[in-house]
Structures are given as C-alpha cells and as structure tokens.
C-alpha cells in the first residue's frame, strides 16, 4: 500500500479532491484509488464478467485495415477534445505538459506503449529522471474487444535503484547484446507517481486473466508478471460526482454536527476540525458575515417543462464511447428525473449562473435560444465546475418570482455583459439552493 499522502495526490491527479484532512482510513483511500482506476479503464464495458481469456478475442492485426493501436488507445472527453482542437489551431501539439499530472502522464505513456505495438512489439523501460524506479515491460499480444478497444497483453517487472533483479538484468542485457534479435528498446521517462499508477493497473488486471492463459514469452521473462492493459481515459461526470462526494465536515468529510457561529455557512464534525480550519476559513468567514443569501428553486437541466426536454454535451462525456448519445437515450426514457446528487453536502461551493438571453453565448443559449417572445429572460442555467449539478431556474415555475428577479438584477449589475456571474452557493434541499448576493468568489476559468 502506498503512503497516505501519495494516494491522495494520485486521486487528485484524476480529479478526485477529497477534504485535505479526510478521516477515511488508509485502506478505504487505497480502495477508492483502485475503484477510480477501474472506472478510468471503463472496465465494466470491456470485461463485465472477469476473468478474461484473451485468445477468445481476434487478433488486432488480423488484417491491414484495422486502426493502428495508437489511434485506438486514445481516450478523451469533450472538454479535452475542445482544448486539443484549440491548441492545434495555435500550433501547439500537446496542451498537457508532461510531469505535472501523474494520471495525464500515464495516459500519454499508454500511447507510447501502443506505438510500440504498431512498430513490432518493441520492449520498453520506464524510468524516472533520477532512475530510482523502473518498469521493464513488453507487449506479447494485442487482441480486439471491439474496433475501438484493444486488449494489450504484457509482461512486466518493477525494480528500484540499487536493487535490479537478475531477471531484469538478463532481460535488458538480451536486448543490448543482440541476443533478442537486435530489437530496439524504447526508453520512456515516467515519474515515480506515474509508475505507481501503472503498477496498480497492471496488478489489478493480472487477477482478471484466466489461470489457463499461458502465452509464449522469452526465456528472460520467466520471472516477469503477466497482465494486460486496456485504454484509459478521464473519469466521466457520474464517476467524478461519486468519488468527490463530501456530504459532511468541510475538513474531513465526517458527518457535520455544528457550523461556524460567525458566518453560519461552513459546517464541521467537531471543534477540533473547526479549529484546524480557522486559518484558511477566516478570510471567507469575515467576508460572509452579514452576507445576504437568496433561495432558488430549480428543475433538471434536461427537463425544463412537462412537455419539453433539452440536451447539451457535458464536458466529461467520453468522445469514443458515445456517452452523449447514451445519456440522450436515457433522458428520453426517463419521464420523472430525480434531483441531482448532492456532492457538496452543506459546504458552500462555487456555481456559475448564466441568464438566458438573446445576447448570450455558451451552454445556456445553446440549450434555450431566446426568441423574440422571450426577451425578458425567463430562466437561469446554473452549474458547478465538475457538472455534478446542472440545473435550470425557471421564473414562471418558481414559487417565488421575486427571488428570481432579485438574482437577475445582481447578474445584470455584476456579471460579464450582464449575463453571467460566479456565486457562492449552498445546497438547501433536493430542488433548492441558496446563492450569496453580495459576496462573490474570484472569477473562475472554467
């Protein structure tokens, strides 16, 4: 098991930012990392009922018309695709800098492994810059789950500095002295954190192979471990919501039993967490004293009325698996959509509120373009950064038209072009939230 701080860092690289003082046990944190990595592999789509026998699938290279493994291994969501397209228009090849995010580094290393498949199963050595840790890995076979999903069968061995195993030494020597047929060896720089993610995936997947599967391997690979890799991509909106849920204390996530007496906005499990949080909470606490909050009633963004439904791409929708279409199909079948999950509990969070207007651009305008008959702006679109809440506030269906008009006036006065503002918000019920009308967060870049 990895150290606690490292597990939290790896989870954060995947977009899972748990409370910094979470009281989840080391075992539970470790389990959450494993589950998150399985979600990132879209495992239940590819291997719904393990164990898997790779030879039950056709070879990826059975005909020349197949997509290169490099193209098939790529996974990204709508938000990343937009960023990639924009970067390419500016002449930037890779908008994601290396060695700053372990999970993004891992996904790029997957493409290097896929490229090695296309070039004849080249062996690879992954090492950090200081060569303190390394993984020897070679692809034995590539099978086809479907035309978008290769199953890459590999053998691997992990070593640390000053402790190179005899098996790794023989394996490396066989390629350096030409006894392995002078096959070139690819060297990949991979941080220790990235290696930990890759090793976790390999060790989880090795248990999902049938015991009878015994592919041919080189004599120098007898001590290596057999496993497989399948494409890895960003977590979807549902997974992000599930793994980021914090319905309790803003410090540790435990059930909240008290709130700050000065601002009344932030909740804690006990006085110990409240005292620990005071230094970071104080600026906001001072700001929120005497703040004015306004309640709003919302409806699902995809169901603004009894006879209406609307759809927009979520930036966390996976591009390759048709997530958006599946979500649309589910939306059409669901006549009574439930409230969005409350992933924030009673903790204040930032939302972007956008007034629908004929002058608007972006999600709200795309969903509900305003005609000449709707010039008086009759709805808001509200969402948080991870889209765990995406809702519509309709003036005509609100129980209090005054509250709608009150918030709209603030947006007109404070917002960009009088159309959108970032607010502090607190979830107050399944279909309600409060927004702070006179204390605002910094402008967000999302």
From TrEMBL:
Q: Does the keyword Zinc-finger apply?
A: yes
Superkingdom assignment: Eukaryota
* Name of the protein in its database record: MYND-type domain-containing protein
PROSITE patterns hit by this protein:
ZF_MYND_1, ZF_MYND_2
Q: Which residues form the signal peptide?
A: none
- Entry annotated with the keyword Protein biosynthesis: no
Q: Which residues form the MYND-type domain?
A: 249-285
Q: Which residues form a coiled coil?
A: none
């Amino acid at each position: 098991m990895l150290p606690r701080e490292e597990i939290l860092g790896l989870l954060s690289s995947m977009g899972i930012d748990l409370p910094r003082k979470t009281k989840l046990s080391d075992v539970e944190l470790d389990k959450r990392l494993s589950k998150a990595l399985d979600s990132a592999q879209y495992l239940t789509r590819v291997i719904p009922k393990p164990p898997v026998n790779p030879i039950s699938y056709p070879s990826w290279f059975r005909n020349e018309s197949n997509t290169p493994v490099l193209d098939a291994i790529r996974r990204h969501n709508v938000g990343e695709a937009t960023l990639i397209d924009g970067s390419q228009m500016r002449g930037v090849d890779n908008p994601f800098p290396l060695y700053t995010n372990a999970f993004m580094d891992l996904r790029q290393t997957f493409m290097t492994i896929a490229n090695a498949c296309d070039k004849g199963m080249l062996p690879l050595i992954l090492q950090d810059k200081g060569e303190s840790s390394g993984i020897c890995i070679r692809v034995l076979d590539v099978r086809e789950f479907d035309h978008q999903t290769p199953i890459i069968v590999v053998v691997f061995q992990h070593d640390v500095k000053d402790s190179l195993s005899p098996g790794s030494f023989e394996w490396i020597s066989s390629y350096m002295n030409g006894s392995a047929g002078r096959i070139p060896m690819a060297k990949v720089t991979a941080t220790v954190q990235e290696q930990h993610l890759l090793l976790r995936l390999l060790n989880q997947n090795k248990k999902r192979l049938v015991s009878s599967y015994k592919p041919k391997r080189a004599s120098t690979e007898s001590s290596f471990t057999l496993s497989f890799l399948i494409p890895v991509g960003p977590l979807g909106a549902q997974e992000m919501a599930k793994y980021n849920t914090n319905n309790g204390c803003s410090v540790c996530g435990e059930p909240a039993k008290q709130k700050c007496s000065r601002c009344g906005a932030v909740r804690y499990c006990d006085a110990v967490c409240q005292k620990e949080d005071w230094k970071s909470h104080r600026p906001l606490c001072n700001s929120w004293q005497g703040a004015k909050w306004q309640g709003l009633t919302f409806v699902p963004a995809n169901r603004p009325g009894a006879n209406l439904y609307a759809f927009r791409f979520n930036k966390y929708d996976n591009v390759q698996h048709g997530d958006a279409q599946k979500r649309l199909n589910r939306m059409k079948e669901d006549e009574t959509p439930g409230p969005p999950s409350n992933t924030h509990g009673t903790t204040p969070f930032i939302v972007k509120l956008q007034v629908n207007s004929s002058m608007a651009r972006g999600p709200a305008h795309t969903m509900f373009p305003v005609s000449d008959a709707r010039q008086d702006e009759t709805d808001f679109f509200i969402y948080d950064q991870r889209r765990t809440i995406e809702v519509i506030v309709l003036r005509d269906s609100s129980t209090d038209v005054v509250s709608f008009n009150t918030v709209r006036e603030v947006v007109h006065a404070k917002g960009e072009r009088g159309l959108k503002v970032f607010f502090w918000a607190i979830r107050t019920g399944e279909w309600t939230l409060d927004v702070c009308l006179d204390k605002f967060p910094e402008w967000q870049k999302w």
